[in-house]
Please model this.
Amino acid sequence: MPPRSNRFLDGDPLAKRFSEYLLAERNASANTRAGYMLDLAQLASSAWGEAAEPPFPWTELGETRARAFLLELAKRGEAASSVRRKLAAARTFYRYLQGEGVVAANPFSYLRGPKARPALPKTLSPAEVAKFLEQPAIDRASGTIGEETALRDTALFEALYSTGCRISEMTGADWGDADLERGTMVVTGKGSKDRLVILGRPAREALGRLRTALEARDQSLVGRAEPIFLSARGARLAPREAQRTMKRYLAEAGLPTDLTPHKLRHSFATHLLDGGADLRSVQEMLGHASLSTTQVYTHVSVERLKDAVAAAHPRG
Model:
């Protein structure tokens, strides 16, 4: 078990000098120093036992004991970030001892901590997406927003979810980029690269209703070079404004307001993989240059499967 505090090091001259070094030469904060010393205390406890008393024989700690320390942390289920921090503290301490001429080699030099697990993208469930997409029509029926605004927002978010586009790609699209009959759209992504995306039936219908409304107001609004999504002032809709609009609808629908338009992209990819789409196809639709970027969504799907097994299987 780890020591209760870094007082385990009280009376150890090398640990004391290292603490002073962190303050004087590394300009470390009080919290950083305390964290380093606690990690060293845990290392000493692991190497020589909690009953051991300082001064500790730091010069005798070789790579075998260093590896044993990392193994002990892993067996206890320490988080990867915690293990990497403790390894960094030990490596820095022994680098200091090398500089002072106390030890010839750093037993932690060639040890590597566990890799950080990529953060899983936060997504909406299909039911939550449906609830969110219904909100502009609900607001229109209640008189909160006008008809054209409701049509615009429905078309925007239907198209985002249907294609998995980034918000800047969608707000940057012009009417000439969309082929509503074929159900396709050309968007310009990162690196000014164009790609073809697919518009599902709800997205095509929503865009068609928006186009009809704009044509009725002014035929010139739907020219090939005209933006599809307009702000209240008649300019191209800005991504930031779309994000604020989404947050309002999320709040009204009783959904988490920390979600962003990019989360619709995450939801698009996750739901495709959940439905059996192959990874290469999803990569192409998202416009990822590397397959490894797309693979994070497979983790989301696997986690959902694990949750389902845990909830429903007799031995889950």
The chain is about 55% helix and 5% strand. The chain has two domains: 6-99, 126-260.
